[in-house]
Amino acid sequence: MMVVSIVTIFLMTLWHYQSWNRLRCNVSPGLRLKISHRFPTGFGGLLFMILSMLFIGLIIVLEARPVYYFMMSDLSNTPVTTSNWIKIAIHFGLVLIINILVFIIPMKIGLKKLSEFEKL
Hints:
The chain has three helices and no strands. It is mostly helical and 120 residues long. The radius of gyration is 19 Å and the shape is elongated.
């Protein structure tokens, strides 16, 4: 369970960093250093917090069932069945795919916006 927690926190940290940069580039068209301190308390900051809560909730929901299977098999001293292993693999696979997608897609969008900003 500790490995699951460490990997989940690592992947979610990558998403938070990328989504913060992407929202700063998309929501704050000025993107100047003198006004960047206003972003966390404005519309972009609110949007970031809402998206963060939705993302964290989705990951918790997807990881709840596999953790339940592990804990119940440990408490009842029975091995995890094959069907439960398949369900566990599907859930953790979905978590991994979602984390990779929400890291790569904002990175590409943010890089595109920053390159457009630098051309100005």
